[in-house]
Specification:
141 residues; 2 strands; 3% strand
């Protein structure tokens, strides 16, 4: 009975993971992207838009560099927000661990370690906000 149940759960999980891939496989290839970030500061990229550069004046762009930078900004913003939320929760969790340790050095150390890992998470989240600037510098735009 356990093998059948575990096989059903595994099969359901696999189906749930593959369903978006199968449903999106019928989608047409996009001809452009929708700009969500203001990239008017680009200097060496010839894209359709205001003065030949990426901008939010039009809604769809065909420039690969503009679309790639827009996607990079969106992904790093999501990564930043998720890490900040998780780090805040972990700082509160670690602080409560230290607060309710009642003098137990092992529980104090565990709470302190949780807070330190949360601070490392915040540092990584801040680095995620710098990644698009690094990519723009490396590409020379």
């Amino acid at each position: 009975m356990k093998k059948i149940l575990s096989a059903l759960v595994l099969g359901s999980l696999l189906a749930a993971l593959l369903l978006p891939v199968v449903s999106l496989a019928q989608e047409d290839i996009p001809q452009g992207c929708t700009m969500r970030h203001d990239l008017t500061g680009l200097t060496k990229v010839d894209c359709p838009g205001v003065n030949g550069f990426c901008a939010v004046e039009s809604t769809v762009y065909d420039c690969g560099v503009c679309c790639m930078l827009n996607t990079l900004y969106t992904a790093t913003n999501w990564f930043f927000y998720i890490l900040i939320i998780l780090s805040t929760i972990l700082i509160i969790w670690g602080a409560f661990g230290i607060l309710f340790a009642a003098g137990d050095p092992e529980r104090m150390a565990k709470g302190r370690t949780t807070v330190i890992y949360a601070l490392v998470g915040i540092a990584i989240a801040l680095f995620a906000k710098v990644i698009p600037s690094i990519v723009r510098f490396m590409m020379g735009v």
